[in-house]
Design goal:
The chain is of the alpha+beta class. The chain has helices spanning 15-22, 58-66, 70-94, 120-124, 138-145, 172-182, 379-386; strands at 98-104, 109-114, 129-132, 153-159, 164-169, 189-193, 199-200, 209-212, 215-218, 221-225, 230-234, 244-246, 252-260, 266-270, 280-282, 289-291, 303-308, 312-327, 330-338, 350-353, 356-367, 371-378, 388-390. Keywords: Disulfide bond, Hydrolase, Protease, Serine protease, Signal, Zymogen.
Length: 393
């Protein structure tokens, strides 16, 4: 049965309503698609929202944050759904030659990177464009992962399109120290100086929020263990194994059964049988729900969105996968880098591409007033490693 509508106000779930089936309807926070099918997201008559206005639909959020008109935003959603299907076929056709995939939100085209020219014909037969890449940044990434991270280095990620590793640092000297320690050729790296170091988002109220001690985090995606126990996925730095997640009244919400930080930044919080798990996505600005139907990973360049009451729906694009981030509390590898904006209190918030779940927010730099970079922990590795099944509609 579909959950009842909720108030769009940014607040905690009312305790009287938590145990009547709606509390975990908030588990899925946000999606790009306006409903199960992208074509239902919005009509072409939908006005463009003001720059700072809350977005009532995914189409409005895309139009606002990517500078699109509503019609173009709908076309982007439809093209991206089609590209996901083509990407799966193209990766299979490329076999061992598959390197990565890129989606262009302007041309709405998918390009598959391959390491062997002999794979081009098979990949293009699936409908994707191809590009042969000569350099693989995997070896450089591996070398950097083996050494201590110098102070001032904030992270690094593979630029598969150019065959380089991008190292970010507060000062070039810090990046130089990292490369020297790893014995890495400077020609294989591009150093980018950044103004701010990323921090985990766990300090302010997100939505729907929970607390571990004084730290505030966000429920991510509902999932079920192989033994049939229900719970939700969130950020690992929100709590250690055995920690209790509390609701707004201080009542027990669940217990951290799995948690990893640093290394990864993911966790699974087990809840009791009184909780109802749903695949629905809450629309904070207008009320109502949408559905997550799977967790197929979107290619680099795809549009993704995240949601919490602090900032409503916010959208951006995937810049890279495999980012390593050096937080003050430890280094996390394998994150996905995006142009999403997020702020403290949004750790664990769900990130979605269309109807496909992508991951949960880990941290970042910047804010939603000036823009920034946000990293999310990929969902599928957590599902696989921990034997979890995503709740889908």
């Amino acid at each position: 049965m579909r959950p009842s509508p909720v108030s769009p106000a940014p607040r905690f779930p009312e305790p009287s309503r938590i145990r009547h089936g709606r509390a975990l309807s908030v588990v899925l926070g946000l999606a790009l698609a306006g409903a199960t099918a992208p074509a239902q997201a919005a009509t072409t008559e939908t006005p463009e929202p003001a720059a700072d206005a809350p977005a009532a639909t995914a189409t409005e959020a895309l139009a606002r944050d990517l500078g699109l008109d509503p019609t173009t935003a709908e076309q982007l959603l439809e093209a991206q759904e089609e590209a996901l299907a083509v990407q799966e076929s193209a990766a299979s056709a490329a076999g061992q030659a598959y390197v990565d995939a890129l989606f262009d939100t302007e041309t709405l085209s998918l390009t598959v990177l391959v390491s062997d020219p002999a794979a081009v014909a098979a990949v293009e037969a699936t409908g994707a464009n191809t590009r042969v890449v000569d350099e693989d940044p995997a070896a450089t990434m591996a070398a950097l992962e083996k050494v201590p991270v110098p102070e001032g280095v904030t992270g690094w990620y593979p630029d598969t399109e150019r065959g380089l590793v991008v190292v970010e640092a507060l000062a070039p000297a810090a990046a130089d120290a990292l490369l020297e320690e790893a014995g890495t050729d400077s020609d294989a790296v591009r150093v980018v100086e950044v103004d701010h170091a990323p921090t985990p988002y766990s300090e302010l109220i997100g939505g729907h929020p929970f607390r571990v001690g004084s730290a505030q985090c966000v429920i991510g995606f509902s999932a079920v263990t192989s033994g049939g126990q229900g719970g939700f996925i969130t950020a690992g730095h929100c709590g250690r194994v055995g920690a209790t997640a509390l609701d707004s009244e201080g009542a027990a919400l669940g217990v951290f059964q799995r948690s990893q930080f640093p290394g990864w930044d993911g966790a699974f919080v087990r809840v009791g049988p009184e909780w109802t798990l749903t695949p629905w996505i809450e629309l904070w600005s207008s009320g109502g729900y949408h559905s997550v139907t799977g967790s197929q990973e979107a290619p680099i360049g795809s549009a993704v969105c995240a949601s919490a009451p602090v900032n409503g729906w916010r959208c951006g694009t995937i810049e890279a996968r495999g980012q390593t981030v050096s937080y003050p509390a430890g280094t996390v590898t394998g994150l996905t880098r995006t142009t999403l904006c997020a702020e403290p209190g949004e750790s664990g918030a769900p990130v979605v591409a269309g109807s496909q779940a992508q991951g949960v927010i880990s941290g970042g730099s910047g804010n939603c007033a000036t823009g920034g970079t946000t990293f999310f922990q990929r969902l599928n590795p957590m599902l696989t490693s921990w034997g979890l099944t995503l709740v889908t509609g």
